[in-house]
Amino acid sequence: MWNEWLDTIWAHYNFLGSLAALALIAGITIAGKKLLFMHPELAEMRRRNKEEDKKRWKKDKYPPMIRSSQQVGKYLNIVFFLLLLPFCVTFEAQPWWRIPLDVFVILMVYDFFYYCAHRFWFHGNGAMRKVHAVHHQARNPSYLDAHYVHPLETFVGLGGYMLTVVVLSAFMGPFHLATIVLTFVIYFQLNQINHVYFDVPRFPFKTVNWIVAKHHVHHENMHKGNYATITLLYDKLFGTLD
Question: Containing domain of residue 150, as a range?
């Protein structure tokens, strides 16, 4: 019985699918940035962020905290792509509508989890408020501040996304490779974009400008709203849109 159970589990282990997801995520991220920064206004925004980041990196508090946070992220990614994701990803063809639906479900379930954790835990009255206060030292964040996060907060945020994928796949079945790639890229990039200095209030960047502005309001102090990280839907629903 035990051997049959193990055979069933390992029959769903798709390491090639996980490896393909990792390669596509890296490739899309690198190629996407190169293409986007060919636009002169985006290139200018990148230049301004780099200037601000150089000033921040010279402060003693930045390098050790960022490196510690990146270490946590590295180990989480190793566990996720090596041990967990292979059970959650498939190459099997699916109806065209399944991929956008699964992407929506994963991101909105995660965003609800993060909204609750951010609002009631990180901005509550316990020890996690002090942990989150490290990130909130940035009152007017630039790109580097997306990474200036306490390692424990990195564990909760990134680990929460990964756990969402694993738990949902247990109920919905393995997700298509495209679903995994799209959700990871959207999750990771939005969490960086909403911290950058960005001032391009024109089409087609007006929405990005609005997202960034809303998160910068959140960083003004520890008493502001706008807790969600993917969309601000839950802030709108629960009256915390600031």
Answer: 13-237
